[in-house]
Design brief:
about 45 residues, mainly alpha, about 85% helix
């Protein structure tokens, strides 16, 4: 499993716990987009 995928799952679980419910499709897509953007920024900073 790729690190960004593990981070996505961790963040998804955190949001679900705080909301007290599972994320809806649009919410999952938003979290996924946020993680991808952050991952790209981290890669740029490290190279």
């Amino acid at each position: 499993m790729k690190p960004h995928h593990m981070y996505f799952l961790s963040l998804k679980r955190k949001f679900e716990k705080e909301l007290g419910r599972r994320l809806e499709k649009q919410e999952k897509e938003l979290v996924d987009e946020m993680v991808r953007k952050q991952w790209r920024e981290n890669i740029k900073e490290n190279h």
